[in-house]
Design a protein that fits this description.
By secondary structure, this protein is of the alpha/beta class. The protein has four domains: 2-208, Carbamate kinase (3-Layer(aba) Sandwich), CATH 3.40.1160; 283-352, ACT domain (Alpha-Beta Plaits, 2-Layer Sandwich); 359-479, NAD(P)-binding Rossmann-like Domain (Rossmann fold), CATH 3.40.50; 486-639, Dihydrodipicolinate Reductase, domain 2 (2-Layer Sandwich), CATH 3.30.360.10. The chain has 23 helices and 27 strands. An eight-stranded mixed sheet has the order 3-6-2-1-9-11-12-10, sandwiched between helices. Strand 11 and strand 12 form a beta hairpin. The longest helix is centred in the N-terminal third of the chain and has 22 residues, at 55-76. The radius of gyration is 32 Å and the shape is elongated. The protein starts with a strand and ends with a helix.
């Protein structure tokens, strides 16, 4: 016999129920199964809220819940099967409407398990619904264990032909015959009682996270799954706030010697935790509740050095400790409640991220060609990169460019570990406004979005200052020349006090492709559009807008505070006569008469045959830098377009 318990998120929708039943049916191939289910996600809270209402408001609240369940029924059943279940559900909701307010919260599991039991029956599975109210008994708020075990054994033994039993969790009946509950989270406890009563081979608790993690992943994004731990460690984590497991669940399983597996419904083949009799010999987690941080060990930990480590890491983050105490299985620290989140992350980093110090979480915004190529590049080369650089790159989150909204960044700022990297592969005009908050929060930024760096100079300087003040980095080599080391070369000149005499750049892949094509201008432009070389609006290329952004970035990297208004831009017109030497050149030339000391211009030019740019072809880019220290020009030339080239440049920015 196996006991499988599924939480509210695992039965929240028709799709989730179908996925849950796939898992249950697979388990039933090898053994008989008892399936314990919670109410659908949010149902118990809605029932409690409805119980406080009166009259039409209560009726409306019950109607909304009925409609929510009816939608699931409509998607799972058809014809006569649906009609039969509709009658069952209608009767249950009539019972709810007539029930006293204190009984409202006991109905959610009845709704969900009736639907699931009927679905199994309709699929031809030999199944039976068991009423936990008749099987689990309580007295004075406590489970009467032996009586409950006897009832469960008898109910199962009476139906030897049944393959899958379905029972509601959470609910029981007291000594007066009144329906009661086992407490919030009590479905886990129900499952453990069934497992212990039946001497089950295993107890699996299926939820929406990959096992018990070293911290709540909603609070610490870098939390890791703990593969195994003892009953004692699991109980300690649960009683101190680890919400993945209801504390009383551990007791029946431990007494019966049954392992508890905490698994992820939505990744059934993924990581999970096994709770058993053997300690894992390590730290297993850290919890936080109103400024109380509890660090739990599953071995005889060194007390003095642990206390020193905790004090040291909190002091380094400027977090005052109100009190610190030693527990049988760990350490508990009190800090100001408003500092609880920061303390949790600091302690977690010290005790659980040190061994994975080289792990870098990447948050990628933009799922176009470059963003997708970067994700693929990281995934294909992660092992090689780790061996070569000592850094393990992990794609923590990847979203489309609509991720510039406040909700995404609020989540990122809250969850991302320090020195995670946010990578902007979008073409957003506004996402740059989040760069400074990210940098100031300790999150590094790598950008392929030239719009974000071609903002007004005051905003550009603010971003650079944010990075400098917080010890973070803002890197954007890819914004000009894709994989070419153009910006790095300019920065080296500026950093060594080599004054730029002149700079010439052919950095519009679109226009260079058109100008070096043998096709007439309209045909060449059309082909460039079809190849995805142009901006979404090709006029941005022809007007020089794209080249302008790149020139602003180039100048600023050279230490010149160039603004758009400082640049003369002459757009390309389709009716012009182009020669073999026609090139769209962005130039910056030292000129003492200008306010910034430089003359900036973007225009179509005819370069002579001995000019380095004369031989450029297709989407090649080139930059020619002349400095005071190096009058012979530095010439950088190569492919200026290509998703993989850009992705490789981003990867260099991430790793260097």
């Amino acid at each position: 016999m196996r006991v499988l318990k599924f939480g509210g998120s695992s039965v929240a929708t028709a799709t989730a129920i179908s996925q849950t039943l796939d898992t249950v049916l697979e388990a039933a191939k090898g053994d008989r199964v008892v399936l314990i289910c919670s109410a659908i996600k949010g149902c118990t809270d809605a029932l409690i809220a409805a119980s406080s209402l009166e009259g039409e408001e209560r009726t409306a609240a019950i109607g909304a819940l009925s409609d929510q369940h009816a939608l699931i029924v409509r998607r799972l059943f058809t014809g006569a099967e649906r009609e039969r279940l509709d009658e069952v559900m209608d009767d249950l909701f009539e019972d709810l409407a007539a029930a006293p307010s204190e009984d409202f919260q006991t109905f959610g599991e009845l709704f969900s398990t009736r639907i699931i039991a009927q679905k199994l029956f309709c699929e031809g599975v030999n199944s039976l619904w068991l009423d936990s109210r008749d099987l689990i008994r309580t007295r004075d708020g406590q489970v009467v264990v032996e009586d409950s075990y006897r009832r469960i054994r008898q109910a199962v033994a009476a139906h030897p032909q049944v393959r899958i039993f379905v029972a509601p969790g959470f609910i029981a009946r007291d000594e007066r015959g009144h329906v009661t509950t086992l407490g919030r989270g009590g479905s886990d406890y129900s499952a453990a009682l069934y497992a212990a009563a039946l001497d089950a081979a295993s107890l699996q608790i299926w939820t929406d996270v990959p096992g018990i993690m070293t911290a709540n992943p909603k609070d610490v994004h870098s939390a890791l799954t703990v593969k195994s731990m003892s009953y004692e460690a699991a109980f300690s984590l649960a009683k101190n706030g680890a919400k993945v497991l209801y504390p009383p669940t551990v007791i029946p399983a431990a007494e019966a010697g049954i392992d508890i597996e905490i698994r992820n419904t939505f990744a059934p083949a993924g990581a999970y935790t096994v709770i058993g009799s053997e300690p894992c010999g390590n730290w297993v987690g850290v919890t936080s509740a109103e400024g109380r941080i509890t660090l739990v060990a599953d071995y005889p930990f060194p007390v003095s050095s642990t206390l020193a480590r905790v004090r040291s890491v909190l002091a380094s983050e400027g977090i005052p400790v109100r009190s610190i105490s030693v527990l049988d299985d760990g350490v508990q620290v009190e800090v100001a409640p408003q500092l609880g989140s920061a303390a949790l992350k600091s302690v977690h980093k010290e005790f659980f991220e040190r061994d994975s110090k080289g792990v870098i979480d990447l948050y990628v915004a933009g799922t176009g060609a470059v963003g997708s190529a970067l994700v693929e590049l990281v995934r294909q080369n992660s092992a090689r990169l780790a061996e070569k650089t000592g850094k393990t790159l992990r794609i923590a989150h990847c979203v489309s460019h609509e991720a510039e909204d406040e909700e995404f960044f609020a989540k990122l700022l809250k969850e991302a570990p320090r020195h995670s990297i946010f990578i902007d592969c979008t073409d957003s005009e506004t996402i740059w406004k989040w760069y400074s908050p990210l940098l100031e929060a300790g999150i590094d930024v790598v950008s392929a979005n030239r719009r974000s760096l071609a903002v007004p100079y005051v905003n550009y300087r603010e971003m650079k200052a944010s990075a400098l003040s917080e010890g973070t980095f803002l890197r954007y080599e890819t914004t000009v020349g894709a994989a070419l080391p153009i910006l790095d070369s300019l920065a080296r000149c500026a950093n060594s006090s080599d004054e730029i005499i002149s700079l010439e750049a052919v950095v519009s892949c679109t226009l260079n492709k058109i100008l070096t094509s043998s096709d007439p201008f309209p045909e060449a432009l059309r082909k460039a559009q079809e190849a995805g070389l142009t901006e979404k609006d090709p006029s941005a290329d022809l007007s020089g807008r794209d080249a302008l952004r790149k020139l602003l970035i180039l100048a600023r990297e050279a230490g010149i505070a160039l603004e758009e208004s400082d640049v003369e831009v002459i757009p390309v017109k389709g009716n012009e006569t182009f020669t073999k030497g026609s090139r769209f050149v962005a130039s910056l030339v030292k000129d003492a008469a200008r306010p910034l000391g430089y003359r900036a211009r973007i225009a179509l030019e005819t370069v002579p045959e001995d000019h380095p740019a004369y031989s450029l072809q297709g989407t090649e880019n080139m930059i020619i830098i002349r400095g005071e220290f190096h009058p012979s020009p530095l010439i950088i030339r190569g492919a200026g377009e290509g998703a993989r080239q850009a992705a490789s440049s981003l990867l260099n920015d991430i790793l260097r």
